[in-house]
Design brief:
81% of the residues lie in helices and 0% in strands. The chain has five helices and no strands. The model has no long low-confidence stretch (mean pLDDT 86).
Length: 124
């Protein structure tokens, strides 16, 4: 399955999407600060934030690299890239909605990967 991804996405995009997956594991491994003011580890919170930021960049750059490699830009590709930029910025302006907005960002990325899987499956 990996050769199909590299063929369909290109090596650069496949690398960015692999980084997205690895950083997603790191985000889950490091806990975020307790939003209710309870005890939390500042180092873990920092590592969580760094991994989350890297994950967003890796996803956006991976989608763009796919567009360049495939020489096309679907509407949903553009929506995914814009969402990966706008959603983190909205979390700065609207911190009380962080959780819901983060779930929206994950939903968009999962839908993008699902669309890519369907597209690659029909190309075989």
């Amino acid at each position: 399955m990996v050769p199909l991804r590299k063929e369909s996405w290109g090596t650069v995009a496949a690398g960015f999407h692999a980084a997205f997956g690895a950083l997603m594991v790191a985000v889950a491994a490091f806990s975020h600060a307790n939003p209710f003011g309870g005890q939390s580890d500042a180092t873990e919170d920092l590592l969580h934030s760094i991994a989350a930021s890297g994950m967003g960049f890796a996803f956006a750059l991976g989608v763009v690299a796919c567009q360049v490699h495939q020489r096309r830009a679907r509407v949903f590709d553009v929506v995914a890239v814009v969402a990966s930029i706008v959603i983190p910025l909205s979390m700065l302006l609207w911190p009380e909605a962080d959780g819901a907005v983060q779930r929206l960002m994950f939903a968009i990325s999962y839908l993008w990967y699902g669309a890519e899987a369907l597209t690659s499956g029909s190309a075989r």
